[in-house]
């Protein structure tokens, strides 16, 4: 056996094995054995643990026949069973040789070799091949060589299997986490939304006050409802108060209720929202818009858990869970004196920030699909959206977040006449906004042109040479292998300071 060739073959094989996933590289490796080493009908069988059989996985031929071996069956089955290499000098004279994989038309003296693929002492497969029989010593050399190759392959298969197993375990784990976190009616797979959902699950078990923050339309209200319905209070009321929508003079009565005759027009007494939310959850939406005088009263409820209806002298104990939401920066409002600091700290027990849609774009196609389904059902239509449209919508910045997206899809479904949404159906403002934002991004990219690594390295080299040569440009140029002119030019270009 030519040793140089064998070495070269090993080198080539390890290169191929290292460069590609093992399932792709194996047939190529077997072909290399054929081409470089003169082996023929190279076959790799691997143990299929489920079937308990040895199955042909790859051959030097393009097609691998569907053949399998039981333990101890034929020569290949014996190598599996005993874990040692075997050589049959003349297959025509070997009754145990089954000719199962290749069904050769045996002519002349053909030798057959088979070696085990071992991982931690266990046989995971068998590598086998034919070779024209020459004299005994060189056949032993070939067997040894084949054994080496089998070792190489076994190592790679093992690494690959380990990697695949780990990947699968990770996928299962992720799926488990995701399905545990999933909340009906809340769509999203981004890490951002998963983090939010994780916090929602955590706080749902408690009665702690939650402050939901985020732009308008990001889903603060759906999340507030989710917290309530995942909590032990789920069967009790969820009462929403929109602090921005109710006029200041009515808000107090709305929240605390009133006794008959408390003010003109109060013909009957009325329960306030706090009382209605007893044992359940009160959702104070747009809390940043609550007028300052009312903030003091809310603070009292949060501290004492009691309310005093207008025109009443009785105080009523309430057991409520408070969730507040705002699209404003409450801290800034506190600084400006528009929001009470003490109320801010009362509310900010568990803050949950819901990121805008443009910061979790991978959720956009998902939401589009979800709303499309929803409105198709609602309007009994079968509208589809072209991929190009989804692409553009995914790049849009969605200032109105999920609400804006939801409205657009509803409009698509209602207005579509031929059942297909195309680019021309997208509102102009959206297309223009996408184009404007992306054009601006491109401009700033070219303007910002940073110095390349090579330039930085050159600058450093020149500085070093200058320092070494006592800042004599001529000497530095000699050190650098440049002309003094070239060095001067670069000193200027890089703004290098000379002492
Ligand atoms: N992740 C989501 N999955 C499905 N629908 C959502 C999601 N987030 C928001 N929505 C929907 O978008 C709309 C606006 O959400 P909402 O909770 O009212 O936002 P916010 O209170 O932050 O302004 C609602 O119709 C809501 O059902
Ligand atoms: Mg809202």
Please describe what this structure looks like.
- The protein has 499 residues and is α/β, with parallel strands linked by helices.
- It folds into four domains: 162 residues, Beta-Lactamase; 165 residues, Rossmann fold (3-Layer(aba) Sandwich), CATH 3.40.50.300; 88 residues, Helicase, Ruva Protein, domain 3 (Orthogonal Bundle), CATH 1.10.8; 42 residues, Homeodomain-like (Arc Repressor Mutant, subunit A), CATH 1.10.10.
- Helix content is 50%, strand content 16%.
- A six-stranded antiparallel β-sheet has the order 3-2-1-6-5-4. A five-stranded parallel β-sheet has the order 8-11-14-7-15. It has a two-stranded antiparallel sheet with strand order 9-10.
- The longest helix has 46 residues.
- It is elongated and about 120 Å long.
- The relative contact order is 0.06.
- Adenosine-5'-diphosphate binds next to helix 6 and helix 14.
Q: Mind telling me the C-alpha Rg?
A: 38 Å
Number of strands: 17
CATH architecture of the largest domain: 3-Layer(aba) Sandwich
Structural category: alpha/beta
**The CATH C-level class name of the largest domain:** Alpha Beta
Individual helix count: 18
CATH superfamily of the largest domain: P-loop containing nucleotide triphosphate hydrolases
Which fold name corresponds to the CATH topology of the largest domain?
Answer: Rossmann fold
Q: What oligomeric arrangement do these chains adopt? A: single chain
Mean pLDDT: 90
| Biggest sheet descriptor | 6 strands, antiparallel
- The largest beta-sheet arranges its strands as 3-2-1-6-5-4
Q: Uncertain runs with pLDDT below 50, 5 residues or more?
A: none
Q: Approximately how much beta-strand content do the residues carry?
A: 15-25%
């Amino acid at each position: 056996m030519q040793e140089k060739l064998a070495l070269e073959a090993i080198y080539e094989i390890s290169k191929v094995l290292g460069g590609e996933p093992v399932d792709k590289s194996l047939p190529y490796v077997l072909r290399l054995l054929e081409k470089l080493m003169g082996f023929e009908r190279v076959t790799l069988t691997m143990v299929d643990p489920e079937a308990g059989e040895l199955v042909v996985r790859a051959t030097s031929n393009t097609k691998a026949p569907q053949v399998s071996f039981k333990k101890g069956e034929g020569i290949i089955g014996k190598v599996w069973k005993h874990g040692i290499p075997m050589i049959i000098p003349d297959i025509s004279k070997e009754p145990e040789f089954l000719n199962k994989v290749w069904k050769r038309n045996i002519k002349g003296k053909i030798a057959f070799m088979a070696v085990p693929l071992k991982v931690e002492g266990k046989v995971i497969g068998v590598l086998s091949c034919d070779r024209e029989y020459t004299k005994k010593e060189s056949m032993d050399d070939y067997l040894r060589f084949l054994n080496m190759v089998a070792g190489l392959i076994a190592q790679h298969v093992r690494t690959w299997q380990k990697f695949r197993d780990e990947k699968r375990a990770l996928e299962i784990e992720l799926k488990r986490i995701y399905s545990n976190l999933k909340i009906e009616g809340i769509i999203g797979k981004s890490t951002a939304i998963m983090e939010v959902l994780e916090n929602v699950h955590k706080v749902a078990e408690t009665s702690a006050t939650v402050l939901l923050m985020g732009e308008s339309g990001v889903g603060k209200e759906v999340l507030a409802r989710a917290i309530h319905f995942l909590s032990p209070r789920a069967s009790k009321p969820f009462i929403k108060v929109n602090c921005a929508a109710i006029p200041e003079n009515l808000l107090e009565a709305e929240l605390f209720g009133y006794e008959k005759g408390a003010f003109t027009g109060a013909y009957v007494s009325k329960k306030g929202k706090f009382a209605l939310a007893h044992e359940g959850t009160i959702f104070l939406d747009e809390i940043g818009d609550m007028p300052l005088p009312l903030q003091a009263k809310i603070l009292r409820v949060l501290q004492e858990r009691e309310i005093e209806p207008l025109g009443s002298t009785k105080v009523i104990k309430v057991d409520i869970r408070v969730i507040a939401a705002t699209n404003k920066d409450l801290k800034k409002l506190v600084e400006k004196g528009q929001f009470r600091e003490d109320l801010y700290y009362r509310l900010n027990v568990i803050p949950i920030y819901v990121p805008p849609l443009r910061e979790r774009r991978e959720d956009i196609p998902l939401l589009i699909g979800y709303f499309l389904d929803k409105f198709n059902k609602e309007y009994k239509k079968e509208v589809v959206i072209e991929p190009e449209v989804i692409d553009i919508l995914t790049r849009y910045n969605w200032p109105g977040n999920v609400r804006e997206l939801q409205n657009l899809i509803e409009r698509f479904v209602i207005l579509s006449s031929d059942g297909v949404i195309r680019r021309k159906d997208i509102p102009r403002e959206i297309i223009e906004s996408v184009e404007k934002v992306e054009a601006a991004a491109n401009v700033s990219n070219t303007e910002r042109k940073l110095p390349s690594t090579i330039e930085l390295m050159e600058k450093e080299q020149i500085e070093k040479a200058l320092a070494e040569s006592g800042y004599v440009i001529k000497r530095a140029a000699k050190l650098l292998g440049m002309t003094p002119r070239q060095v001067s030019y670069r000193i200027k270009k890089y703004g290098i300071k000379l002492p």
